[in-house]
Amino acid sequence: MNYLNEAYINLDTIAKNHFEEYINAKPFPHVVFDNFFDVDKLNDILNEFPSNLDRIGIKYDSDPEKKLASNNPDRLSKKINEFLNFTNSHKFVNFINKISGIERHLIPDPYLWGGGVHELKNGGYLNVHADFNKHPKMNLDRRINVLVYLNHEWEEKFGGSLELWDNKMEKCVKKIVPIFNRMVIFNTTDFSFHGNPEPINCPDKTKTRKSIALYYYSNGRPKNEVHVNPHTTLFKNRPNSNDSEKITIYKKIFWKLYYQTKILIK
What we know:
This protein has helices at about 10-25, 40-45, 55, 80-85, 90-100, 250-265; strands at about 30-35, 60, 65-70, 105-110, 115-120, 125-130, 140-150, 160-165, 170-175, 180-185, 195, 210-220, 235. The protein is α+β, with helices and mostly antiparallel strands. Helix 1 (about 10-25) packs parallel to helix 5.
């Protein structure tokens, strides 16, 4: 099934035409596409977005983040699973490889570790951070994030904009409003600080910030992209903010033990 807007059917051409824009983007390589996917198919996905993520999904509720998520295919609709399969297909992954110029073949994540469908209700946020850099099941290096937004009539004043910060955490270089059918692709390293730290504050409390998160990996990466390996999410404080860098002791212990038992112990 073809999920692409007609203007983006030839992904090889799109990758070639946007390659320079991608690699030269500040504060780190990225690109934003609007209306990348077929509107009707994306609306079908939105219509089947789980309305009960607080019961069937994962609830993140700590100082650094307040959001809901699910990466369980058994709890997602057929149409959502088919879309996820497309974004894990050779056609789409090859496009990501070409537009990013990643030197190694990218590998999709069948486990959707940390990805899948995400939702933020009023008060929800995700503080600025650098992502975990090793897949805990496959021992692969995380290289690319793709975010697809599903929010009709979303305004910047509602909060939830994706913020891209410089590597010294001195300023936000770019804000991206999470409007419907907007896709963001960006490199993820130990220095690609990003998040949506402004809490959701939408007058219509039935309207929530919905997205699909997809992550792509490689077997190995340049040494200058990491300073700690492996690590879980590294949260950062914005200047003059009340953000918290705290991560619970449980989360630290869980990550360490899980990684050791699943990967390091043969």
